[in-house]
Design brief:
Layout lengths: L1 H7 L6 E3 L9 H4 L4 E4 L2 H9 L7 E3 L6 H5 L7 H6 L2 E5 L4 H12 L5 E5 L4 H10 L7 E4 L5 H7 L2 E5 L2 H9 L4 E5 L4 H11 L3 E3 L6 H26 L4 H12 L3 H12 L1
Parallel strand pairs: 1-2, 2-3, 4-5, 4-7, 5-6, 7-8, 8-9
Helix pairs in contact: 12-13
């Protein structure tokens, strides 16, 4: 009996951080947890409708790198951005689609394009060779740990609707054009971008290049709307909010003070 009671006692809290938005796999919330942290109120509603008690759900934002909170994102005048937009293209789609998209983007002579290829070194080398004629207009990177800096210094992100990628774009106030949506968990991430007016999803009717062109037409009118909407919903300090909640709940006030100071410096 003594051993059974010891096993029954729990000296910790289990906290689940759900990284996708809206279309959340039920495995996340059907597993027992003391608390669920979600990125936004729309996702919180999904959990409560599924039967999770409202006091077990906290919409504290997505825990992006503290670099986003420390970064000073200066206001960008739409007319200036439209004259020389900076596009960050994170390649994660098939080779054929990538080639067509790049060809159309490169035909827009006023664009500056940064391409990341992740750990695909052969693709990085091939693109570096093929696109060398474009000079400083095109920069090609392999795997990088500078994504926060890249997002905060570019005007539009082109990438798939991954949970982290979407939330980092929101934290950086970088409008996003989604070029791939994996059915299921990524559908909600794409809906989030569209619902808050923070970008668009490329379809057969409108491809990436066409959406980029529309964003910067009329002196960047649409782009400015996207960015204004992002500034209203962006929560780049979410990691700090989550740390405050967890450490404060445990009574670790000294640790919490040190954590807050670390994230704010």
């Amino acid at each position: 009996m003594h051993g059974s009671n010891a096993r029954a006692r729990k000296h910790f809290r289990l906290i689940t951080v759900i990284t996708d938005s809206i279309s959340v796999c039920s495995a996340w919330y059907l597993t027992k947890s003391d608390l669920f942290i979600v990125a936004n109120e729309e996702t919180a509603e999904v959990l409560t409708r599924a039967g999770i008690a409202p006091d077990q759900v906290r919409a504290l934002g997505f825990p992006v790198s503290p670099i986003f909170a420390r970064g000073q994102t200066l206001p960008r005048e739409a007319q200036r951005v439209a004259a020389r937009p900076r596009v960050l293209y994170v390649i994660n789609t098939g080779k054929a689609r990538t080639g067509k998209t790049l060809e159309r983007l490169l035909a827009m002579n006023h664009l500056e394009i940064t391409i990341t290829t992740g750990r695909n070194e052969s693709l990085r080398a091939r693109l570096t060779h093929q696109l060398r004629e474009y000079g400083h207009r095109v920069r090609i990177l392999g795997w990088t740990d500078q994504m926060p800096q890249l997002l905060m210094s570019h005007d539009v992100l082109v990438a798939k609707a991954g949970g982290a990628m979407v939330q980092e774009a929101i934290a950086a106030c970088c409008p996003m054009i989604i070029n791939q949506v994996i059915p299921g968990q990524e559908e909600g991430n794409a809906r989030l971008i569209e619902s808050v007016g923070a970008g668009a999803v490329a379809t057969r009717q409108k491809d990436v290049a066409e959406l980029v062109q529309e964003a910067f037409a009329e002196s960047g009118k649409l782009w400015q709307q996207w960015r204004n909407n992002l500034q209203r919903v962006s929560r780049p300090d979410s990691a700090l909010r989550i740390a405050e909640m967890i450490l404060g709940g445990l009574g670790n006030h000294e640790i919490l003070a040190n954590k807050v100071e670390l994230l704010q410096t």
